[in-house]
Amino acid sequence: MVRLDDENALIQTVDFFTPIVDDPYSFGQIAAANSLSDIYAMGGKPLFALNIAAFPAGDFSLELMAQILKGGQDKAKEAGISIIGGHTIDDREPKYGLVVTGKLRIDQMVRNSTAQPGDVLILTKPLGSGIVSTAIKRGIASHRLMKETTEVMTTLNDMASELMLKYKAHAATDVTGYGFLGHLKEMCEASDVSAVVEFDKLPFIEGVEVLAKNGVVPGGSRRNLDYISNSTNFPPSLSEHQKLMAADAQTSGGLLISMPPDSATQFLEKFNAKSSITAFQIGEIRKREEFVISVK
C-alpha cells in the first residue's frame, strides 16, 4: 500500500498461473478474476492492469494466445478497467495473469487481521475448484461440472466487496491457494481469535464430494490440510476426504468475511438477491481458544 494523501492509498497485486481449464478464453477470464480478487478483498477499487504471460515461443498457437488474452481483457472490462500493457516471456508451459493497481480509502480498508469475537463468518462462493481442476486434468470431469466451476471462478468479487464496505465488515480475505481453512487460520491468528465452522453449512460445488471420496484431490489441498492440522479440531465423524474438501486449494474463490450478526443478515439478503452465486453464513468468531479453528 502506498499512501497518496491522508485519505487515499494505492494498492497493487500480481498473480498468474498455468491453465486449469481446457478452454483458453475461459482460462484468461479465470486468471484475470483471480488477479483482481486481492483488490476487492481489501475493499479497494481496481484502476488498471498489466498482462503478465509466458508462452513457448514458436511452439504455441497464436490463436490460443489471443483467446487467453481476450478472456483477460473482457474480464478487466467487466471490472471497469483497462489493461494498458504488460510483458511476455518464453517459457515451456503457458502461464497468464495480471498485475492490478487499485485505490482505496484508508479509513475503509478491510484487513484480514481485525476479526472480532461475536462476528459471524460469511463465504461468498462454493468450495471445490481445486478438486474439479484436478478432475479436468485427468479427463474425468463432466461438461456440467466444468461449466459450473468455470462460472464460479470467472465471477468477480466486486459486489461482495461493495456490500462488505456498506455493512461495515470487520475483516475479510479472499479464498485462494491456501484453501478455506488455511485462509481462515491466517485471519484468526492475525486477529488473535478463534473460529467455529459448521461443516454442513459449507457450500461445495455439486459433485466435489464424489470426486474427493475417489481420491481426486490436488497435492496443494493435501499440503493445506497438513498446514492447518495442528491448529484445527475436527470431529471424529468427519472423514479424511471431507477434511480435504474444506482445505481444497482454490482458484478465484470467494470472499471470507467476518462481520457483526446484524450486518451479516443484511449482507446476505442483498447479496443473494442480486448474485447468481449464493453466499452462506458458515461459522462464527470467538475469543482465542485452545484450537484456532474448531469444525463442528
Could you outline the blueprint of secondary structure elements for this entry?
Layout: E1 2-3, E2 8-17, H1 24-41, E3 45-55, H2 62-78, E4 82-90, E5 95-105, E6 120-123, H3 129-137, H4 143-154, H5 158-166, E7 171-174, H6 179-191, E8 193-197, H7 208-213, H8 219-228, E9 232-233, H9 240-246, E10 255-259, H10 261-274, E11 280-287, E12 293-295
Parallel strand pairs: 3-4, 8-12, 9-12
Antiparallel strand pairs: 1-2, 2-5, 3-5, 6-10, 6-11, 7-10, 8-11
Could you please describe the fold and organization of this structure?
With 296 residues, the chain is an alpha+beta fold. The chain folds into two domains: 2-108, 2-Layer Sandwich (60s Ribosomal Protein L30, Chain: A), CATH 3.30.1330; 120-295, Alpha-Beta Complex (Phosphoribosyl-aminoimidazole Synthetase, Chain A, domain 2), CATH 3.90.650.10. The chain has ten helices and twelve strands. The strands form two sheets. Strands 7-10-6-11-8-12-9 form a seven-stranded mixed β-sheet, with helices on both faces. Strands 1-2-5-3-4 form a five-stranded mixed β-sheet, with helices on one face. The protein is globular and about 55 Å long.
